[in-house]
Every structure is written in structure tokens, then in C-alpha cells.
Design brief:
By secondary structure, the chain is mainly α. It has six helices and three strands; from the N terminus they run H-H-H-H-H-H-E-E-E. The protein folds into two domains: about 40 residues; about 60 residues, no CATH class.
Length: about 140
């Protein structure tokens, strides 16, 4: 069997890649490609392999995405973060005015808890208070 027939046999019948054939015959990939391009069936086979690889890759991607979702579901901190995000979204979307709890969370360093009065008080000495921020927030 001559070399060209052997190359075509490896590619079409045994379905080896150009690199595998080049390694096996100890030649370059470009030489293998040159021989195969002379065959009329080469382009058809090449397109068929592209479609197969694309479908395999899509299946693999879906498996990876599904696996990552499953891992996130097992992670408790993911759910805690998700619920905190949903809660913050609800608070922001209710009205134009922020709730006192949300203000205290976002301006936490500006408010200090007063045990005697059971409330959070704005610390005027640390920063300037805008008019829309309350002086104190009930706990």
C-alpha cells in the first residue's frame, strides 16, 4: 500500500486526526493535509467532524454549567448572599425613601448604638449629616 492510500485509510476509515496521522507516519501535518485535500471526500468529512465536535462541546458545556449550579446549591454562603441581595432589592424597590434599617446598614460607621435609649444615634463629630438622614434610628 502506498503512502497516500495509507494516509487516506487512516483518516477516512480509522477516523484519526491529522496530527495523529502525522505522528504515526513521522511527517508534517501540512503534508498530510496536502494529500487529503486532493481527495474530493475530504471537505465533506471535515465538515462532518466539525459538526460532531460542536455538538460534543455543547453537551460538555451544559454538563459543566449544570455541575457548577449543583455545587452552588450545596454552598450555604451562596444562598445567604442571594437572600441578602433579594432583601436589599425589595427594600430599594418598595418606595423612594430608604427604610431606617437599610440606612443603618449602609451608613453603619456613622451610627453608634446607645444602650440607655435603645437606639442608634448619628455621630455628628465624625461626619456631616445630610438632611435626609435621621438623627437617630430606633433599634
Amino acid at each position: 500500500m502506498d503512502k497516500k492510500t495509507h494516509i487516506q485509510n487512516l483518516y477516512f476509515n480509522e477516523e484519526k486526526t491529522l496530527t495523529e496521522i502525522a505522528k504515526e507516519l513521522n511527517t508534517s501535518v501540512s503534508y498530510i493535509s496536502k494529500i487529503l485535500r486532493a481527495n474530493k471526500l475530504y471537505l465533506i468529512e471535515k465538515e462532518k467532524r466539525k459538526r460532531e465536535n460542536l455538538s460534543k462541546r455543547r453537551i460538555k458545556q451544559k454538563e459543566i454549567i449544570y455541575k457548577n449550579r449543583k455545587n452552588k446549591e450545596k454552598d450555604l454562603s451562596y444562598y445567604e448572599l442571594k437572600s441578602a441581595h433579594e432583601q436589599a432589592s425589595k427594600e430599594l424597590s418598595k418606595s423612594r425613601k430608604l427604610g431606617t434599617e437599610a440606612i443603618r446598614k449602609w451608613c453603619g460607621t456613622s451610627y453608634k448604638y446607645n444602650k440607655k435609649k435603645n437606639r442608634y444615634e448619628f455621630q455628628e463629630d465624625k461626619s456631616l449629616r445630610s438632611l435626609d438622614l435621621p438623627k437617630y434610628i430606633k433599634a
